[in-house]
Amino acid sequence: MGKMIEIALAGNPNSGKTTVFNSLTGSHQHVGNWPGVTVEKKEGRFTSNGFKVRVVDLPGTYSLSAYSLDERIARDFLLKENPDLVVAVIDASNLERNLYLVAQLLELGAKVVLDLNMVDLVEKKGIRIDTEKLSRILGVPVIETVAHREKGIDKIRKVVVEEAEKRKKVTFKIDYGPDIEAVIDRLIKFLRVKRLPVNYPLRWLVVKLLEGDAEILQKMKNLPEGETILNVIAENVAQLEKHLGYDLETALIEKRYGYLKGLVGECTHKHYGLEERLNLSDKIDRVVTNKFIGIPLFLGLMWLTFQLVFTLGGPLVDLIDVFFGWAGEVVSKGLISIGAPQWFSSLICDGIIGGVGSVLVFLPNIFLLFLAISLLEDSGYMA
After folding, report:
1. Binding-site residue ranges for GTP
2. Cα–Cα 20 to 30 A to 12, which of 87, 257, 269, 330?
3. Is 270 helix (H, G, I), strand (E, B) or coil?
4. CB of 157 within 8 A of CB of 163?
5. 157, 75, 83: which is closest to 115 by C-alpha?
């Protein structure tokens, strides 16, 4: 048996990543928590071509910007554990949005295998993805899968082992435009001279510093000459923002999406005779993202959420309140009848029963709020 290969599964929420994980590993799974947090950590194993492969299912994230706990966990694992390979599972029917995470993985220097999941949905839309061109432009293998039918899963197992053994340098690069690129090149040379004790690709580090990534800025501050480096970064950011007329983080994000929009346009083709065909999701997207009615619609949904939480939750809150009030009276009378001291009766009725009731009285509102948020997330509205 060959050496152990470690791979990570990365992808947006609802991309089918967990289904891919289950299909790859079967019953050979272990569930725990990520160090220091209560976020679930799933690991599994499979064998392929004589190699043992350990699979870590990273939390579903839309980016690696470390704004949320899930994003921070995923990024820290990639930076610290440095897996042999990352399988990026993306929803092929939402290519542009899902490729944003892939672009960030490649900028980070990760060796990536791209899994275009749910290709059956793409075919139903009458769209064909040129996987060869996509693979050539990104410089990564591209595999088409339908994970819930286990279509393409065996190919992932095979390609993962082949790619993990290759000593391939990631050459992916997004052109951020002449002004920003000039600053990036200058700062890379500046940091190279400093010989920083970091294992990040310098270009990725510079881009993150220019974006104002709080975690990276803090780590840089703790390094020797950190303050000097941050001052140089701040000067360059200020100059660029003055030249661009808006904040640099937004400019970098827009450049990424601009690149991905062009990439998707180049690698996707609508079948003949289906150019005007729109599925239900497309039609809904056109309405909810309309620049005139999008905001009023959002405010309307928030109002409906408020009504759901407090109008439906109100009677349940009153019911719980009445129940604990009644329970307190019954227990109080029972304690008095057996001659319990006043302090003990007060502790049980006012302290324990009253305290529990004061907490549980909010339960209906909290349940309905999370139900509403879950429905909005599952519908794709909050994606």
Report:
1. 11-18, 36-40, 57-60, 117-120, 146-148
2. 269
3. strand
4. no
5. 157
Q: How many CA atoms does the CB half-sphere of 167 hold within 13 Å?
A: 0
For the CA atoms of 15, 21, 27, 33, the dihedral, rounded to the nearest 10 degrees, stands at -90
| C-beta atoms surrounding 83 within 10 Å | 21
> Do 230 and 213 meet the contact criterion of CB atoms below 8 Å apart?
no
3 state DSSP class of 379: helix
Using CA atoms, how far residue 136 sits from 113, 230, 252, in Å, is 12, 37, 24
State the residue for tokens 């200058």: 186
| pLDDT tens digits, one per residue of 284-315 | 777 777 778 888 888 888 898 888 888 888 88
Are 95 and 125 a contacting pair, CB within 8 Å?
no
Residues at the annotated binding site for Mg(2+)?
22-23, 25-26
186-224 per-position pLDDT tens digit: 999 998 888 888 888 899 999 999 999 888 899 888 888
**pLDDT over 70 (residue 35):** no
Q: Which residues of 131-169 are buried (b: 16+ CB within 10 A; e: fewer)?
A: beebeeebebbbbbbbbeeeebbeebbebbbebbeeeee
216 CB neighbour count, 10 Å cutoff? 19
Helix (H) or strand (E) holding 135, with range, is: helix 131-138
Cβ count within 10 A of residue 267: 21
3-state secondary structure of 109: coil
Instruction: Pick out the residues of the known binding site.
Output: 11-18, 22-23, 25-26, 36-40, 57-60, 117-120, 146-148
Say what the pLDDT of residue 331 is.
84
| 10 within 8 A of 86, measured Cβ to Cβ | yes
Nearest to 250 by CA among 200, 176, 175: 176
